[in-house]
Amino acid sequence: MTLANKAAIVTGSTSGIGLGIATALAEAGASVMLNGFGNPDEIEQVRAELATRTGVDVRYSAADMSDPSSVIQMVKDAESVFGKVDILVNNAGIQHVAAIDEFPADRWHKILAINLSSNFFAMQAVIPGMKARGFGRIVMVASAHGLVGSPFKSAYVAAKHGQVGLTKVAALELAETGITVNAVCPGYVRTPLVEGQIADQMKAHNLDREEVIKTVILGSQPNKRFVEVAEMGAVVAFLCSDMAQSITGISLPVDGAWTAR
Asked: How many CB atoms are closer than 10 A to CB 259?
C-alpha cells in the first residue's frame, strides 16, 4: 500500500491520535500538513523529525479550527505548497464534561465549532479540487460517541453524531466522483491526554493504575485494552489507499466491541 505523490491535511495532529495518523500517512509516502496548538518549538521538532524520518514534505499550519476563514486558509496554504490536497483527515477536537442544565454556552459553541463545523468548512474547501482530479479521501475521526451516548458529554456526543451524519451525506453526494468519505469511531486510545486522566482518576477514586484502567477508563470497552495510536494510523491509511475505493459512507468502530452491545 502506497500513498506516494498524495498530499494530506490532518487537523489536530501535533500529538495523540492526529499525530499517529499523520505519521502513518507520511510513512506511506504522502506529504502532510500538520495542524494544532502547542509549543512552537516542540511542534517544529515534531515536524522536522517526521520529515527527516519519512523523507516526505511535512508542513505545519496553526489554523484555528473554530474559525471558518482560518480553516479555509489552511486548505489554500496546503494547495499552494503541495499543489493539491488528496486526503483530508478531520481529527481536531476538544471536550467539556457537564450536565446539560449546567453546560456553559460558550463551551457548547466551541465544541460544535471545532469538532463538527470545521469538518464541513474543510470539506467544502477541498472537494472542488478533488472532483477536478477524480480522486479524494476524506476521513472523519469521530468516536464511539458518534454511535452511542454517555451522560455529561452532550456537546461532544452531538458533534460526533453530527460527524457520522455528515459522513453519510457526503458519501452519497460524492459517490460517483472518485472521492470516498468515511468515519472511524475509536474507543479509548492510549494518548498523553488519557494518561493524564488515569492519574486524575487514581487520586479521585483511591485506586491503583490497573484498577482505574479496567473499571473506570475502560469500563465500557469489553476487550479491556486501549486502542493504540498506531492502530488508528493504520486504519486511516488503509481507508486512504486505492484498495479502499469501494468503502465509503461507513462509520467504522475501532473500540474493542464497545458499540457491539
From this structure: 17
Range list of H helices, 31-148: 40-54, 68-82, 105-112, 118-133
Contact partners, residue 236, CB within 8 Å, separation at least 6 = 21, 24, 25, 89, 139, 141, 184
Q: Which three cell numbers stand for residue 74?
A: 489552511
Q: pTM for this one? A: 0.95
* Domains recognised in the chain with CATH numbers: 7-187+228-253 (3.40.50.720), 189-226 (no CATH)
Place of cell 465509503: 248
**Is 188 a known active-site residue?**
no
Cell matching residue 226: 486501549
Q: What is the DSSP string of 241-256?
A: SGGGTT--S-EEEEST
Q: Quick: pLDDT tens for 146-180.
A: 999 999 999 999 999 999 999 999 999 999 999 99
CA quadruple 159, 161, 166, 167: dihedral, nearest 10: 120
Q: Do residues 231 and 254 touch, judged by C-beta distance below 8 A?
A: yes
Grid cell locating 257 = 466491541
- CA 75 centroid distance within chain: 16
What would you report as the CA-atom Rg of the chain, rounded to the nearest whole angstrom? 18
Q: What is the arithmetic mean of pLDDT over 65-91?
A: 98
Residue type, 190: R
Looking at 156, 188, 226, 258, which residue is catalytic? 156
- The answer to whether 29 and 4 have CB atoms below 8 angstroms apart is yes
- Residue 246 and residue 243: Cα distance in Å, rounded? 8
Cell digits of residue 119? 469538518
Q: Measure the CA dihedral 103/104/109/115, to 10°.
A: -50
Closest by CA position to 14, among listed 191, 160, 189: 191
